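User: I'm new to structure prediction. If I give you an amino acid sequence, what do you actually give back? Let's try with this one:
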Amino acid sequence: MKRINLIIIVILILTHLNLDAFGQSTRTTMAIGDIDAKDIFIGTKLNALPELVILEMNKIDKYDLLDQYDMRYLAKRDSIEIKGCYSKICLAAIGKQLHVDKMLSGSILNIGDNITVTFRLLDVATGTIDKSQTNEFLSITTEIRKMIEITLS
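Assistant: Good question. You get back a string of structure tokens that encode the predicted 3D arrangement of the chain. For your 153 residues, that looks like this:
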């Protein structure tokens, strides 16, 4: 009887363990595409925007992100052009080449006295937008990182 109880306890424990403990990720994979930003960042490197988005998405910790180093390596190795890719068709094609489930892209635009931050989450398999979020902020370019964080959360 003790042996049966022990077996049942072991089975219950094993069924409740997270698969991540065995090295198998169950989280959705994601890559960050290009971020469209025009004429608003004097003195700021526009190519740093995807890295800022990656940093903020890492804080959210919901997805298994392809980091900027992996992205650069794969883009170079497989001749993938990520710059300037904003359309659903382009994002889905790149996502398939990168073997990820989701692609995130967006824009940061200066419209009048405001900065509009938009992000779109694309399902690579279906080529459809799962979620789109747009927020409008006062034009304080030193707060871009916070604007990105608020829009992504």
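You can read the tokens as a compact description of the fold. Here is one thing that stands out. The radius of gyration is 20 Å.
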